[in-house]
Specification:
By secondary structure, this protein is α/β, with parallel strands linked by helices. Helix content is 49%, strand content 17%.
């Protein structure tokens, strides 16, 4: 659960940081909480003023762009005469205009009794080399300082943060230079803007005077002094389509985008006050979001109906939002809201999904565990028809397959129990899967031995064909398994297959019963498995089974007759063969010719067998012929 919550928190924080809409939602909520919880200003900031080049001013100028340098010269001169503390020109002086007016502006800046900060930009802002060179030359001639005027915007285009300096240079920001906070520390680092709200009377945060008013008031220096004495004055455009930016103020309070010169005024005021917006450090944000994700996961894990879980999660989300607002109202940092609520959804959703998956797996496990007592096919049949649970049986034509792992007892005594358990489970897993794939039913496991039934519980006319094909597939699997597990020194897997009639059904008591088959045909299959030891083979199939199988197979089987065998405990002989998948068809033809001559022409049989190379059944018959035995009939003395 904790792991799910941790992953949910990490994903939520990463998504809010890197996914634009989510980042905008997080910062937008924080903007609204901060501004809603902030106190309105008692009045306008008496330390700052804005001189705005607005539309009324533009209407009196001979041209709109660049801003008339003669007007700017008059504004700077009059501000100096009025006793202004400093001037910041938020107007980019990147090209020459009328030489006389350019010279007047440079002279006015040079004569100003305090610092004049000129807006600076470079190639990163789209400035060309000639523009940058002219600006630098003008600054040197006028004695003005430079301050980087570009504003920092978030991915959603909103101005929320600011840096005191331009990274990689010694150029301070326009606001830092005006506020006297232009030291080398902090360059490139950003901090959240603490916006000054309008006054309680609705007045704007800063005194704003249209630029055209100053020349008109030149004859009233006392009025100008009352407006600007000891103030930092920012001069810049306040035009509808120029240098305007989206800010939390404009987004939350409504109204047009904020003029760039007004944003610089907010920045200067914040720097003068040394105000920092409280923010959560990354570890604290992580811990807070993780805490909510854990709570959501706990609710999701509760054994409640979803109609109770859903309101509980809604209460959690509402409580978190209320906590974020309450903490901000006390002057604290705003809790992450979008990231936390996203973590809540992810944590609760993932936990409920995992819970549903585990419940589904549990049901599957229970069903699978029941199949250890009843075959899966039988389970499905019993689900459809519960009457099959009655004790008793029926006679049925079917096929039987027995397997046994040679030398398992000795091998098990030499292996550690844990290793033996893993090895045996892997082996039985593979054999069982093959049985199921060939429409067989795993009747039981007896140590390393597997007993499989074919043709039950439903009728299957091709049960013998499925049993024979299954025997060949198990043989191939067992040989591969031996080759892969050489360290275990596994013996060969012996397989016996037979078809016949048996009684099949549920046998046992009413509290515990087993679905199995009973009858001589089943015992014969078990004897055939053991007969492989005498033959040197891995598969022994009765002739009855082969005849039934071939009636349902398109391709011939690699049948290698062994003989007419009288099994241990039996009186009558049955035809027995092995399935030699490795033998070529012409080799099998030559073997069958030698086998046919065993009774009628032993000498010819001996000659033909001598040409067949190394094969256990060939070796068996050569030994018999050498001992004076003829024909195909053999009686086994051992099981």
């Amino acid at each position: 659960m904790l792991a799910i919550a941790a992953v949910a928190a990490a994903l939520a924080l990463a998504a809010v940081r890197w996914v634009g809409p989510l980042h905008g939602l997080e910062t937008g909520i924080a903007d609204r909480i901060r501004i809603a919880m902030a106190s309105p200003a008692a009045g306008q900031d008496s330390r700052l003023s804005i001189v705005a080049v607005d539309e009324a001013t533009m209407a009196r100028l001979p041209y709109r762009s660049p801003v008339d340098r003669g007007l700017l010269a008059d504004v700077v001169r009059l501000l100096g005469a009025a006793g202004a503390r400093a001037v910041g020109l938020d107007i980019l002086l990147d090209q020459p205009t009328e030489p006389a007016k350019d010279a007047r502006l440079a002279a006015a800046i040079k004569a100003f009794p305090g610092p004049v900060v000129l807006a600076w930009a470079d190639a990163r802002s789209g400035m060309t080399a000639p523009q940058t060179a002219w600006l630098r030359t003008f600054g040197a001639e006028s004695g003005g300082r430079f301050g980087f005027a570009n504003l920092t915007t978030d991915p959603d285009g909103m101005v929320r943060r600011h840096s005191r300096g331009l990274a990689g240079t010694d150029t301070p920001s326009l606001a830092a230079a005006l506020a006297g906070r232009d030291g080398p520390d902090g360059a490139g680092e950003t901090w959240t803007v603490d916006w000054r709200l309008p006054g309680t009377d609705g007045s704007p945060p800063f005194q704003t005077t249209p630029a055209l008013i100053l020349p008109l008031m030149a004859a009233n220096p006392a009025v100008l002094a009352g407006w600007f004495k000891d103030r930092i004055v920012l001069v810049g455009a306040d035009l509808p389509q120029q240098d305007r930016h989206a800010t939390p103020l404009s987004a939350v309070l409504g109204g047009p985008a904020t003029a760039g010169v007004a944003i610089h005024a907010h920045l200067v005021a914040q720097l003068l006050d040394n105000r920092l917006v409280p923010e959560w450090p990354a570890p604290a944000r992580w811990a807070a979001v993780l805490a909510l994700a854990v709570l959501a996961a706990l609710v999701a894990m509760a054994r409640w109906h979803w109609l109770l879980k859903l309101p509980a999660l809604i209460v959690l989300a509402g409580g978190w939002l209320a906590g974020a607002i309450g903490l901000a109202s006390l002057g604290g940092a705003v809790l992450p809201v979008t990231a936390a609520l996203l973590a809540l959804l992810l944590g609760a959703g993932a936990t409920m999904g995992l819970d549903a998956l585990l419940a589904h797996r549990e049901r599957r496990f229970i069903r699978s565990a029941f199949a250890h007592y009843l075959a899966p096919q039988l389970v499905e049949e019993l689900v459809r028809d519960p009457s099959g649970l009655r004790l008793g049986g029926e006679r049925r034509e079917m096929s039987f397959l027995f397997t046994d792992l040679e030398g398992f007892t000795g091998m098990s005594e030499a292996m550690a129990p844990e290793a033996l358990g893993r090895l045996l489970n892997d082996y039985l897993d593979g054999v069982s899967a093959i049985v199921m794939a060939h429409r067989g039913v795993v009747d039981k496991y007896i140590g390393d031995a597997v007993v499989a039934l074919f043709g039950v519980p439903g009728h299957d006319p091709a049960h013998a064909a499925h049993a024979v094909r299954c025997a060949m597939a198990i043989d191939a699997f067992a040989e591969r398994f031996r080759a892969e597990r050489t360290d275990a020194r596994l013996g060969t897997t012996r397989i016996g297959v037979h078809s016949g009639e048996a009684t099949v059904g549920n046998f046992g008591g009413r509290l515990r019963f087993d679905y199995t088959a009973l009858g001589d045909a089943m015992n014969t299959a078990a004897r055939l498995e053991g007969a492989n030891k005498a033959f040197g083979t891995r598969i022994a199939v009765s002739g009855v089974c082969l005849r039934e199988a071939e009636a349902h197979l398109d391709a011939p089987l690699p049948v290698q007759p062994i003989g007419d065998i009288v099994l241990k405990g039996k009186r009558d002989a049955i035809a027995v063969a092995t399935l030699n998948a490795a033998a070529a068809p012409d080799w099998l033809d030559r073997y069958r010719a030698a086998y046919a001559a065993l009774g009628c022409d032993p000498a010819r049989a001996h000659t033909l067998l001598a040409c067949l190379g190394d094969d256990p059944v060939v070796a068996l018959h050569r030994q018999r012929l050498a001992a004076g035995e003829t024909g195909a009939r053999m009686e086994l003395k051992e099981k």
